[in-house]
């Protein structure tokens, strides 16, 4: 009886140890809220930290001690890539001294490397402003590219945490099913936006416009990364006077000063669209972010 009791105790401890190992939480450092949200869909039990909010320009982030500490603890770093984070991510990686998240062979994941980016350039120089040779990095507003990225991220999660591969694959299947069901609903809802023209800040919504058949005819920035100048705004006013512009659009983190100047003089509505999860009260995950942006655009159609 004593032997059986001891064996049962040992078996119980072994099962508990295995269970704890199988449910071990990955520490994930996401560069942007959209990739924190996508990781949450695929790894709901992971500990996920977003380095930025929808109210911050992801091009410009300070390597704060809190971010360094979070990266030092990370098993996986998930970022947009295409050099969006080139101004701050390498500094964080160096200061965090975490060799596991310095290479995409290990715990570093770039979304842009798992799909095809728009607007790739063969040559880039300083005179062109803040452009990205590897293409536009604001990928998360194309629902079809999100599927590509989700597949790549699931493979990375399974690589780092092989014991839970089946759980990640099941979560991917569930997310993909719900996401694919939402796409035709969004496209049906947004049919009236096809062909609409806007003036917008930066190329932040490039993928959204490409997907919905909209056209950004002008940029509030004279060059990418530069604030609107009076002469540039004057030229935009002339363009707006042609009468075919639907609205002036800015992101949740850009200044609205130039947009308001243009909107007041051209009698065009100025709309601040959420750039990511948390950009407005309605955007709490990827699904509601899309719902919110499309609904807002339809308000001024």
From TrEMBL:
Pfam families: ZnuA. It comes from the Bacteria. Keywords: Signal. InterPro entries: Bact_metal-bind_prot9, ZnuA-like. Residues 1-24 form the signal peptide. This is Zinc ABC transporter solute-binding protein. It comes from Shewanella intestini.
């Amino acid at each position: 009886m004593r032997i059986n009791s001891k064996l049962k105790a040992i078996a119980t401890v072994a099962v508990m140890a295995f269970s704890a190992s199988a449910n071990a939480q990955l520490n994930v450092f996401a560069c942007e809220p959209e990739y924190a949200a996508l990781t949450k869909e695929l790894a709901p039990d992971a500990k996920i930290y977003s380095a930025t909010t929808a109210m911050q320009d992801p091009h410009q982030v300070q390597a704060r001690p809190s971010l360094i500490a979070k990266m030092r603890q990370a098993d996986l770093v998930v970022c947009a890539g295409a050099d969006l984070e080139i101004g701050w991510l390498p500094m964080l990686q160096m200061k965090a001294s975490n060799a596991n998240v310095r290479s995409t062979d290990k715990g570093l994941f770039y979304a842009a490397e798992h799909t095809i980016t728009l607007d790739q350039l063969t040559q880039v120089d300083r005179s062109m402003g803040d452009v990205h040779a590897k293409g536009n990095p604001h990928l998360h507003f194309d629902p079809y590219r999100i599927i590509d990225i989700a597949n790549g991220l699931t493979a990375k999660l399974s690589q780092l945490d092989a014991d839970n591969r089946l759980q990640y694959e099941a979560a991917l299947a569930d997310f993909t099913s719900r996401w694919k069901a939402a796409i035709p609903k969004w496209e049906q809802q947004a049919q009236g936006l096809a062909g609409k023209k806007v003036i917008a800040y930066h190329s932040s919504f490039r993928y959204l416009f490409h997907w919905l058949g909209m056209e950004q005819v002008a940029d509030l920035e004279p060059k990418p990364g530069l604030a609107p100048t009076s002469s540039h705004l004057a030229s935009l006013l002339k363009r707006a006077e042609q009468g075919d512009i639907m609205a002036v659009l800015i992101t949740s983190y850009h200044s609205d000063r130039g947009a308001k100047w243009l909107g007041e003089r051209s009698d065009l509505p100025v709309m601040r669209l959420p750039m990511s999860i948390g950009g407005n009260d309605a955007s709490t995950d990827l699904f509601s972010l899309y719902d919110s942006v499309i609904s807002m655009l339809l308000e001024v159609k």
